[in-house]
Amino acid sequence: MNAHEIDYQIYGEEMQYVEIELDPQEAVVAEAGSFMMMDSDIKMDTIFGDGSNKDNSVLGKIFSAGKRILTGEGLFMTAFMNMGQGKKQVSFASPYPGKILPIDLSEKDGKFICQKDAFLCAAKGVSVGIEFSKKLGRGLFGGEGFIMQKLEGDGLAFVHAGGTLAEKVLAPGEVLKVDTGCIVGFTKDVDYDIEFVGGIKNTVFGGEGLFFATLRGPGTVYIQSLPFSRLAGRVLASIPRGGKDKGEGSILGTLGDIVGGDNRF
Questions:
Q1: Is the whole model's pTM more than 0.85, yes or no?
Q2: CB neighbours of 96 closer than 8 A, spacing ≥ 6?
Q3: CA-wise closest residue to 133 among 71, 224, 211
Q4: Domain residue spans in the chain?
Q5: Which PANTHER family match (predicted)?
Q6: In what order do the strands lie in the sheet with 88-93?
Q7: Which fold, 7-238?
Q8: pLDDT higher for 49 or 20?
Q9: What's the mean pLDDT in 206-220?
Q10: What DSSP state is assigned to residue 250?
């Protein structure tokens, strides 16, 4: 085993968190902002890159950090190591409603491909990199589903899916068409591409985007019902224009401004 062996427990339903149990000198790495709580004997340390042992040279660490920039993440990750004598716990929380999916890379032939913002945390030693696309269509039209992260190694990793999580096992040659933002991740043998929706009515009036992803088996695909981009779009659309929140444009809204002390008049 190259990665640290860790035990875990996932708690909650809609807003889950994962509690990871560390033996002495075991460590877990996580994205900034996912930390929830930890025992007192756990040491938190900021590391350059993903903290894997894949390439410990200075150039290797710079390249690892550079890949994180390409996926839209920061240069640094946070490592949490148990410096005590007994077992200790550290917990990481979901960024928004959904499910936490544990991925045992030793059962996925050492590689799992996921959305760039799906990764939550992993055992130290797991490599977090970028999955480069060799197809022009993905680069031009992939959008939010184009830049994918790859998790490599033989340890446990945890990814987050928004809303409800669906697992689809594809037979050889079987094709699944998915909204690009709804992809959580898939195993390394799944072939991934972008396809044009087609049709003038679909393009102009469909409201579902011009392209969707095609995933061809064999392999396992994980789909989320609520991608963050969709959630953020609904939140932004519900914000009243001009910053008002009392029925803008109505008589009741104007009366509310006067009673509420709005001094614009």
A1: no
A2: 162, 226, 228, 231
A3: 71
A4: 7-238
A5: ALTERED INHERITANCE OF MITOCHONDRIA PROTEIN 24, MITOCHONDRIAL (PTHR43657:SF1), TRYPTOPHAN RNA-BINDING ATTENUATOR PROTEIN-LIKE PROTEIN (PTHR43657)
A6: 7-11, 17-22, 88-93, 35-38
A7: Double-stranded beta-helix (3.60.160)
A8: 20
A9: 77
A10: S
